[in-house]
Amino acid sequence: CSNEHKLNFRKSKEACLSYIQDALLQKQWKRAAEFLTCYVESLEKDYSREHIGPSEMIWRIGSEILWHHSQSSMKEFNCFMEQMKTLGVKRYLKVCLEHAFHLLCNGQIDEAYQHLSLAESWRFGEQTAIQDKEMKLIQAYRGLLDYCSWSKQKNILLEHGEDGFSDLAVEQEMHGYFRKAAVNLKEIIKIPGVWDIFVKCYVDLLEFYGDHNEARQVLNEYAYNSKFPANPNAHVYLYQFLKRQGESKKSLISALKILHDIVPSHELMIDFNTMLQKSKKRKKRQLGLEVIFAALDYAGWKENAKAWSCLARQVKQTVISEKHLDWIKQEWNSRKDWWPAFHFSRYLAKRNWQENKSLSYEKALVAGILLGKDCKYFKYVSHQGCKAQLKRFRMLKKFVNRHNAVCLRISG
């Protein structure tokens, strides 16, 4: 072929791909399918040796179209995936894995298991070693399905444990699934990575059979091994396990401290704050104040009544005792430029009062202490509360007025 012909051919391919991309972005699946057909037909006339790129694109684009196209069926999708498996051995296991995912999404669990089993038995010279990680993923997902079968049998055993013979049969079958699942799940979580679902399932298996030491070791490794990426869930799973085991407060606090450092807005920060506030150590109580302030820096916590209640209780106790006012002042100094607009505007006072009076009470108490009795939020809510003749709001107003001098020392 002449260079001019090759150039024109490349341009037409690029244009066709551009049209496909445009159709995909606009979710025009029928139009995308038509352009993909043209693209495949044009490749049949392609005399160049660039086969890797196009086959990868056909697989990825084609599976996306078939997944969303209103007229496509699972039979067509299966047929397409089988064709894709023959396009290149380098992507064989990846295609097998994606095929299994689609079957699972359609509730075809047995079929997905069969496809994963077939993929696991695949061998192709040096490619087998090169695709070792993909093979481990195939095995891991098969282990996950074995875990699901184990869980199903476990529930049958727990719910209908009347007939001794059927019990024994179910139990034997359950142990079979346990052995297969445990082997594959254990292997995948040795590789540095994010393996949340596999870790949770493996730990569930271990805990059910009373192997708590192994479960602890797995979770510690997942949370603290520096080869693994930083993962908040790893610390959540460890904390939940320690809590189930009735571990000491010190261990629980240690697990949540790292979670706080990674994700200060995590929902478990309320548990963390509660534990810290019960501590006899000043440093831990101060950390508790830091934790709840930090959580309320995030928009997702703005209307969390429990969080505001935690903060309100702590600042109220501090104002009454007049001890450690510097702790509050330290936290407030870095926030006094933006928290008033973020949390304590008159607009929010009206909305909070209408939607959740308990929330507005806790916030008004914090606002009154941090900003004084002239704060817009405090004035509006306390006025509405007194007008509605609610005793707690009258007491709130009296408390802030009585301690206004202390509040001014905090607000500076």
From TrEMBL:
Gene Ontology BP terms: transcription by RNA polymerase I
Top-rank lineage group of the source organism: Eukaryota
InterPro entries: SL1/TIF-IB_Component, TAF1A
Annotated GO CC locations: RNA polymerase I transcription regulator complex
Pfam families with a match to the protein in the record: TAF1_subA (PF14929)
Entry protein name: TAF1A polymerase
Gene it is expressed from: Taf1a
